[in-house]
Hints:
Blueprint (H helix, E strand, L loop, with lengths): L1 H37 L12 E2 L12 E3 L5 E3 L9 E6 L6 H14 L10 E6 L6 H15 L8 E4 L3 H10 L2 E2 L1 E3 L4 E3 L3 E5 L5 E6 L5 H11 L7 H9 E4 L4 E4 L1 H32 L9
Helix pairs in contact: 2-3, 5-6
Amino acid sequence: MNSIHSAGRQHHQRALARTVLLFVMSLVAxxxxxxxxxxxxxxxxxxxxxxxxxxxxxxxxxxxxxTDEYGSQVRLSDYLGKKPVVLVPVYYxxxxxxTQVVQGVAAGLRALRxxxxxxxxxxxxxxxxxxxxxxxxxxxxDAIARYHRPHTxxxxxxxxxxxxxxQALTRAxxxxxxxxxKTRTYVHAAGIVxxxxxxxxxxxxxxxxxxxxxxxxxxxxASEGKTGSIIDHVLLYCYQYDPATARYGTAIxxxxxxxxxxxxxxxxxxxxxxxxxxxxxxxxxxxxxxxR
Length: 292
């Protein structure tokens, strides 16, 4: 009997301890929430200087001069005029993020049947004026290895430039970044830009992974109809770019109009078929007494 009472007291004590613990945890959580709400939800001064907002249909200055991965002087106009351009703002000594951006570009483009150099150009440029051609060449070699098409090396370009050219190009695509002296790295966003052959900004994509479908539609759209199959253009009709999400989503109204047109055409074809069949059936009836 005593053992039963003892077990009951222990159970009661454990229940009381759990109740007290939950009460204390609730107080701590409430205090933390109030303290968090009391603090202003503002980004750090460094992050306030970072941005990558879309500036669609803006034009990049084609006469800007850079140095390519082999040390030759080039201009942006050397890569414009015939094909769309995938423009990649990175810096080659970036410890993590920029490497992921370049790898994401190679992975996304690898899934397409389009070839770099033939159907589009890839132009990466460093926004760190201290980067050099050997670092650019190393990044290019890594990108081509991940792209798995060594014959397309001529379609990949990794540029470096001086402060003036870098500022002009990043300003044109609305890419804002800043240098952090504490970590000796640049604070920046991650993403890429698709340009038309004329050098106008067609599409933005953010992050470090780029969906092959979105890249394909963007290249078809930026090529002004010169790249892609009939299926690509049909998909482009059914999907619409959303600047807010930087992705292609289903264009509901276009899709409904397409289904409506298909339905009307189908009904008209069916009616025409049955009318013709009825006429043929009447003509096939035997003639009796000169009257059908």
